Amino acid sequence: MTQHRRFRATIVGCGVIAESGHIPALRAAADRVEIVAAVDSDPERLADFQRQYEIPAGYTSVAAMLAVGKPDLVLVCTPPATHADITVRCLEAGAWVLVEKPPCLSLAEFERIEAAEREGGPYASVVFQHRFGSGGRNAVDLISSGALGRPLVAACHTTWYRDQAYFDVPWRGRWETEGGGPTMGHGIHQMDLLLAMLGEWDEVRAMAGRLARSMDTEDVSMAMVRFTNGAMASIVNSVLSPREESYIRVDLTDATVELTHLYGYKNADWQYTPAVHVRDSERVASWTDIPDNVSSSHTAQLPYVLDAMAKGERPPLSGRQGRETLELIAAMYRSAFTGLPVRRGEIGPDDPYYHRMDGGSQPWP
Question: Where in this chain does the record put each GFO/IDH/MocA-like oxidoreductase domain (predicted)?
Answer without folding.
Answer: 139-257
